[in-house]
Amino acid sequence: MSLFFGDSMITPAMSVLSAVEGMTLVLPGFGNWVVPVTLIIVVALFWVQRTGTEAVSRFFGPVMLIWFLTLGVLGAMHLLDDSRILQALNPLYATGFIARNGLDVLPVMGSVFLAVTGAEALYADMGHFGRGPVRMSWLAIVFPALTLSYMGQGAMVLSHPENADNPFFLLAPAAFTLPLVVLATAATVIASQSVISGAFSVSQQAVQLGLLPRLEIQHTSDTQQGQVYLPRVNLILMTGVCALVLAFGSSERLASAYGIAVTGDMVITSILAVIVFRYAWKWNWLAVLGIMLPVLAIELVFFSANLMKVVDGGYVPLMFAAVVVTFMLVWMRGTLLLQRKLSAESVALDFLVEQLTDSPPTVVPGTAVFLTADSKIAPPALMHNLKHNRVLHERNFVVTVEAATTPRVPEDRRIRVEQLAPRFWRVWLRFGYMEQPNVPKALAGAKAQGLRFDVMSTSYFLNRRSLRVGKARLMPLWASRLYAGMYRSASEPTNFYRLPSNRVVELGQQINI
Fold first, then answer.
1. What is the SS3 assignment for 292?
2. Residue 256, SS3?
3. Are the C-beta atoms of residues 402 and 372 closer than 8 Å to each other?
4. CB distance 371 to 460 below 8 Å
5. How many CA atoms lie within 13 A of 282 on its CB side?
6. Which N-terminal residues, if any, form the signal peptide (predicted)?
7. Which of 99, 185, 338, 394 has a CA positioned 20 to 30 A from the CA of residue 443?
């Protein structure tokens, strides 16, 4: 995930830069304008994210189809410039080249890998389309078109070595260079959109799984649940992409950073596949290693080759990945320690319910919903309400929102209810990591389980914690301060859980961490 975030920054910067650089073939004096024009396109790309891509995405398919057909046709036109290029279809040629040159082949492998750096985009946003359409489009269109394009460029360079600096745009006749640049720019923007959408989806999943603090999530489509927009993630990505464009200034210099992020993604994905095959699908080790060992061997060779580029810019995705991992580890560790601290200082919910049943305070009409992360302890908001207001509602729901390990949870498995006393219910709500929690809607759908819930007579009690870094800290000083800052920056639970703001009551609590 951390490397994918780095890739989500590098891909737009690399793709748009390389496309805009093609203008120098049409306008030789355009070199000084490459970076400014790239920045304008990048800012515009991230600016339109807030409106969603549903309206413009209908043009993505036709544009990309034209793009790949163009790649295939241009490559086929030059395929016979030098027939030796056909040897590239034989894997033995590549293995023989590696065997003859040994470790000296690593720099070449690092450069060759740039031909497949878009492969991670195949699964970056697969949740929107599914495996079938991705597989069909790859085998029927993308793979043949890319193969023809790269072989055509190789044949042209073999026959005309002077074209090695920019072989792609030189595939087209001079009169078609400008239209090709425009088409390439459109295609790179669309390709960048896929990793940006993927970053939004991955961030949403990370929040649901507790790897990151709550983030504001906006749904940009009435029909596609997976189309989401995260303003904070969008701003971070835009800032990072612009910084990369300004720092590197050309696609050639940025290529060093590109390879490590993608090969790292691939190696980690393959390792995760091994874990899934063996422990989730219960395959035997012979089948797992028979399939994945050759894949991992190839990926590790490319990863090793790209590690040689660390000093030339490859450190960028590694540094960014380290930052993301640090944030996630601090958040998970801090949340765990904070929950343990609160549990140790809290009253058991069953005990409190028993006491309130035996000696109830003043009962007021209506329903109270208390959100809590631990269903076994009395929610702090409930304790504060009893302490300060000295009242108890007719119906009290202690609600715990849980994240499932599946993308979505069927409605008939969404809610679980346990009645503790005549006035108390313990409720568990489960949401998949691709779903946006909606507590009122889920509770309203629980009538089938005998849960009486009236939206208009319900109040939601939330505990607003204020974290202070004290002398007796749960973590090192830097980690405690980082966790406190992340906690303060988390989005409001009212918005995150889709609670009606005019029916929310917040009660404060200071906690030393």
1. helix
2. helix
3. no
4. yes
5. 0
6. none
7. 338
Burial 6-33 (b: 16+ CB within 10 A, else e): bbbbbbbbbbbbbbbbbbbbeeeeeeee
**Distances from the Cα of 184 to the Cαs of 75, 100, 261, 353, 484, in angstroms?**
15, 37, 23, 66, 45
Q: How far apart are CA 329 and CA 335, in angstroms?
A: 10
**Which secondary-structure segment (H or E) carries 392?**
strand 391-403
The pLDDT score that the predictor gives to residue 223 is 61
d(CA 42, CA 122): 21
Q: 424-431 and 391-403: which strand pairing? A: parallel
Which backbone phi and psi does 437 adopt, to 5 degrees?
-60, 130
Per-residue pLDDT at 129:
62
Packed helices 231-248 and 34-47: angle between N→C axes, nearest 10 degrees: 170
Q: Please, are residues 404 and 205 in contact by the beta-carbon 8 Å criterion?
A: no
In DSSP notation, 306-328 reads HHTTGGGTTHHHHHHHHHHHHHH
The pLDDT tens digits of the residues spanning 404-422 come to: 878 789 988 899 999 999 9
CATH ID of 2-313, from 2.60.40.3140, 1.10.10.10, 1.20.1740.10, 3.20.20.70: 1.20.1740.10
Count helices and strands in the chain by DSSP H and E runs: 21, 8
| Beta strands at 391-403 and 362-371: parallel, antiparallel or unpaired | parallel
Domain ranges of the chain: 2-313, 347-512
Q: What is the pLDDT of residue 124?
A: 60
Cα gap 106→298, rounded to integer Å? 12
Instruction: Determine the average pLDDT of the residues in 266-276.
Output: 92
Phi and psi angles of residue 90, each rounded to the nearest 5 degrees, phi first: -95, 115
Indicate the pLDDT class of residue 123, thresholds 50, 70 and 90.
low
Q: What is the largest CA-CA distance in the chain?
A: 93
Phi, psi (degrees; rounded to nearest 5) at 136: -65, -45
Q: Tell me the pTM.
A: 0.82
